[in-house]
Design brief:
heterodimer; A: alpha+beta; OB fold (Dihydrolipoamide Acetyltransferase, E2P); 20% helix; B: alpha+beta; Gyrase A, domain 2; Elongation Factor Tu (Ef-tu), domain 3; 9 helices; 22 strands; globular
């Protein structure tokens, strides 16, 4: 299972990368895309929308099912990966390259509750 | 969970296995969409051994089936001819949909759905007792004489089957659509559930893996139930349990064409069906906005509310399509709205056959 060591993870199968400018990129894990199968539609949040931690931010739909993607921390959406609107299969091809959205975290937000790679590996082993 | 004779093969070849009506079946072997395209463009092979063949014989076999089924097996004049029908309860609800093959003078084979087979068999046996008919009923899914079923579908399918079963080549080439031919325990039927040409093959379970492996070696793509579902949806074919069940009349599920009211037969459910009449239209939807139609979404029309019964993404059309139960006044060409996660998205009503033989029809 592909779980990069330099990323953080949620229990709801998002991955998180802290960018040099302090924003946070969010995608879904390789495990999540494999469970969903071929993705055919991704609904992305509006740039500028303010989200609470664990609030629904995006929806990924495969041929089989729809799944919510949650904001891992509170903050403001600063960018979305518009390429996914035309090519949702990019998430299947490279789950950790195909980020969905970027959040500027609110001052109060903190990343300490997120899992590291070992913690996420344990989570999906247990599942 | 129950397993088909090909279960080990599926697992060895990376299939994602799922529970389908109590059977552990392959959903896909990597990409459901690639498998779908393989069937539309070339050929794919499906393990459908979870479906149940039921052999019906005896002096009264024909009289029994004419009373049991809503379509009329008297239409099966030629040997090998197949007929699609529903089997109804007394109130006109659909117990199952099935194909019946006319194999000989007093010999029929009925193929029913996996999840409903045990209930179907109990219903059939019960009716032979009620009606005091001389009929034998033998399921062929379990036991020493169990059959496996393999569907080979796609524009290249018939040629591939002729290639791997050379002794059946003449049969493969001569067989007309909706006919079957038997050779010992092998039955080749020119039927399917994809909207493409092809065969559904029944054969002794012990021979299934060698035929399957030969087809794959000949370049036929193994396909799972995921692709089977999007293919049948594009072809506008109903799925039992989703598009109709015991609470739904065939008239409200787009299956009026399979109900024979011309012959003066008193088949099960007839009087209820006639008294009740048609209450809904069963039509297709093409989503015009971006999103994915799914079963149970509400449909708003100018004539009232409807409901999506099957919905998914159409790989051939690259947009979402659905089958839906709509108000009786609905017609193809109508614009409607579908409620998807609190948003109303626009859809177009169409005749429910979206793709046939590789071509988009809507």
């Amino acid at each position: 299972m592909n779980i990069p060591a330099d990323l953080r993870y949620t229990r709801s199968h998002e991955w998180i990368r802290v960018e040099p400018d302090g924003t946070i990129s969010v995608g879904i894990t390789d495990h999540a895309q494999e469970l969903l199968g071929d993705l055919v539609f991704i609904e992305l949040p509006e740039v500028g929308s303010e989200l609470a931690a664990e609030q629904e931010a995006a929806v990924v739909e495969s041929v089989k099912a729809a799944a919510d993607v949650y904001a891992p921390v509170a903050g403001t959406i600063v960018e979305v990966n518009a390429a996914l609107a035309e090519a949702p299969e990019l998430v299947n091809q490279d789950a950790y390259g195909a980020w969905l959205f970027r959040i500027a975290p609110a001052a109060s937000s903190d990343l300490h509750g997120l899992l590291d790679a070992a913690g996420y590996a344990q989570l999906i082993d247990a599942a | 969970m129950r397993k088909t004779v090909l279960n080990d093969w599926h697992r060895r070849h990376g299939a994602r296995m799922v529970d389908f009506g109590g059977w552990e079946m392959p959903l896909h072997y990597g990409s459901q969409i690639d498998e779908h395209h393989a069937v539309r463009r070339e050929a794919g092979v499906f393990d459908v051994s979870h479906m149940c063949a039921v052999d019906i014989g005896g002096r009264d076999a024909r009289a029994f089936l004419r009373r049991l089924l809503a379509n009329d097996v008297a239409r099966l004049q030629l040997p090998g001819k197949a007929l699609y029908s529903t089997m109804l309860n007394e109130s006109g609800g659909v117990i199952d949909d099935l194909i019946v093959y006319h194999l000989g003078e007093q010999s029929y084979r009925v193929v029913v759905n996996a999840a409903t087979a045990d209930r179907d068999l109990a219903w059939m046996v019960g009716r032979t007792e009620d009606w005091q008919l001389a009929v034998s009923i033998a399921q062929r899914r379990n036991g020493n004489d169990a059959l496996a079923m393999i569907a080979v579908q796609g524009p290249l399918a018939r040629g591939k089957v002729a290639e791997v079963l050379p002794e059946q080549r003449a049969t493969c080439e001569a067989l007309k659509p909706f006919f079957a031919a038997t050779s010992g325990q092998l039955m080749i039927a020119r039927t399917g559930y994809t909207g493409e040409d092809g065969f559904e093959i029944s054969l002794p379970a012990a021979q299934a893996e060698s035929l399957w492996a030969a087809l794959v070696a000949a370049g036929v793509s193994p396909c799972g139930l995921g692709a089977r579902d999007t293919l049948r949806l594009e072809a506008g074919m109903n799925l039992y349990g989703q598009d109709m069940d015991e609470s739904v009349s065939p008239f409200d599920a787009g299956l009026g064409w399979t109900v024979d009211l011309e012959s003066p037969r008193d088949f099960v459910g007839r009087s209820s069906l006639v008294a009740r009449g048609q209450r809904h239209q069963f039509l297709g939807l093409v989503l015009l906005d971006r999103g994915v139609l799914r079963a149970h979404q509400a449909v708003r029309t100018e004539h009232g509310e409807g409901e999506v019964t099957s919905g998914s993404f159409s790989p051939t059309m690259a947009q979402s399509i659905a089958l839906a139960r709509l108000p009786l006044a609905s017609t193809p060409g109508d614009r409607v709205q579908v409620l998807i996660r609190d948003r109303l998205l626009a859809a177009r009503v169409v005749k429910p056959c979206f793709v046939r033989n590789g071509h988009i029809l809507v």
